[in-house]
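Kindly inspect this chain:
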Amino acid sequence: MATRAQPGPLSPAGSAGVAALATGGVASCPGPGRPGLLQDETLGVASVPSQWRAVQGIRGETKSCQTSSIATASASAQARNHVDAQVQTEAPVPVSVQPPSRDDIPRLAAFLRRVEAMVIRELNKNWQSHAFDGFEVNWTEQQQMVSCLYTLGYPPAQAQGLHVTGISWNSTGSVVACAYGRLDHGDWGTLKSFVCAWNLDRRGLCPRQPSAVVEVPSAVLCLAFHPTQPSHVAGGLYSGEVLVWDLSRLEDPLLWRTGLMDDTHTDPVSQGVGAGQLQLTEGFALVMQQLPRSTKLKKHPRGETEVGATAVAFSSFDPRLFILGTEGGFPLKCSLAAREAALTRMPSSVPLRAPAEFTFSPHGGPIYSVSCSPFHRNLFLSAGTDGHVHLYSMLQAPPLTSLQLSLKYLFAVRWSPVRPLVFAAASGEGDVQLFDLQKSSQKPTVLIKQTQDESPVYCLEFNSQQTQLLAAGDAQGTVKVWQLSTEFTEQGPREAEDLDRLAAEVAT
């Protein structure tokens, strides 16, 4: 409850007023203009609005504390997730082997006695069998057998339409050289040609920029490095000349040439073999009347008696013995030791002799290549325009075997220098065929597609030092260096014996 004072005039609040308030008005005395005693009275509620609050509200401002932005980042600990996996199988059931009963033992013994002789006989037969001779277990992953390592070429020669007509590796096996010329018909004899070489061991090898280039005034048909001088190479020209260059001499590489004289060949030189110092000491001529009587030749027109030689290969076992391929298609066994004078009027500074000692059964056309086995003194290969490769023994005229590898010409055949039963052939259909006679005597082990347009492959050579390399040249002016797997470079067990067995078939 609120109390309110009776209305009346307000008086100053002096000390007497204060005392009166303190005593509840008892000490106050009535006087003129003074009210009487204070009395309690209930009054209404009076309220006075606050002007201060209104003023403060008008002046109020909103303040905030400004701070620099706080950079935040989320980070977590990296951990690997592990998953456990299992293969659910059925619980193994133990197998119990029941021992034979006493009643079965006599019957088992009787059975073993009954079959003993038959089992021993079969075991002896298996022990004597050669069905698995040469078989080796190979647990390693099968690798590609042949891969192209380099594709080499000389653009100026290719722009003239020249072919790669000859290939040779130098004595270290690090440099491959090729001859540029033409083997087809036409007036290519006076066309400028080239001999190019690439050092495969040189850092920064550029396949289109040979390390050595020699310009030649006539088409080069064959090439052969010196057997011991790694920079000396000889080439046979379409003009009949033979030239020798030193590829280490960039300014003037020509060392020697036959020139156009009496000793110069009158026909293109189709093959050369390096054998030491180049000095004419002996000469030979093939005359039809002096060939062995077993040779059956058609008579040449215009009374010609000379027989054209197209390929040569020397024996690895007898340095005097060599094989010649001829235009007539028959191979000839010849000897440097022959003393019979050749019945020819060909001019020569040295006496010409008749070297032929034995004639083999012919191909169906001219022979382009012959190769003597480096592992057997009596075996050699020949290839010719009939698309066949013949394997001959020097002890009989008919070939041991004849393989048709192409419907077109075969231009080259070579024995492997490290595998007795491996050889390679180059065909007019643009492929190189690798044969392993230990695997098959009828079909190639690998057929390499050298040219995509089936233009001919004219030449090939194994590298006798880096035995995994095989080089082949084609009509596109390209030399491809193929890398062979160990299957073609490592001898198998009894391989030499198999070669001897193959050569022994001549006596049957």
